[in-house]
Amino acid sequence: MNLIKRWISLQIDLDSFHSREAVYGFALKMTFRAVILSFLFNIVALPIFHVFGLLPLSLGDTIKLSVAFSWLVGGAVSGALAIVTGHVIRELSISRAEFAHLSRTDVLSGLLNRRAFNEILASTDGHDASLAIFDLDRFKAINDSHGHCVGDDVIRLVSQAMVEVFGPAHPTARLGGEEFGVIIHGGTSTQRLAMVERVRALISERPLACDGAVVRTTISGGVADFQPDRRRETVYSAADRALYLAKTGGRNRIVHESDGIERLAGQGQVEVTEEKGRALFTRFGMETMSDGQAGQASA
Asked: What's the pLDDT tens digit per position in 131-147?
């Protein structure tokens, strides 16, 4: 019985129903298997009916008619039903893909959301990659002065600039509020840092016109490098500390983890431990710097 179930089963994969050709291919397979199954049933059942005298025709003629009807009637009915079913599955697969995309996308910015970013971060290996964390400078002042609608436009402006520079090759996300993150792959550490600088410069040079007023914004960032033997918590913590240094150093700047971290820690201005990084791995695997901590750094 299990053998028959495995033979009938089409092992339906929703991801393969994105085209109409896939629907008709599914219908053809379903029709063929339904007809074959009907034919096999007739071959087994008709001789039994013949023994008990239940056939109005000879066994040979009955088998011929059953084969013809299996293809004409059974094939047509099962084919029509399979086409309808295939279209339903296709609509379901499209809806599923759209939902999967929305569940990983920040609605306002169009970038990845924190959950998707955390998943990618957790699977990032330690070869030729850097983590950059960005925070908009004085974003609260923009909201207070111009309203949250302008603040939303600023978020979109910054997101567009990041997409222009990083593109799809480097996962970019809005981590929450005015904080963003990107995992930069390939090249040297210097080349990756140059990309981050390019984003900072592009945002600072791109004003936003709104209701007759011109709104300018800048962004600060901290960068840390992945290494094969380095924990993800450590990388995130190092990038977070570098972001803090960029904020306290005057904003509108990018700081690499190697730029003055020991000096800053030696002065007691920031606690250099992995505790903050470990605390990030909570409900969704990782959490970003809290809004309160971001506000303190932005103040």
From this structure: 999 999 999 999 888 88
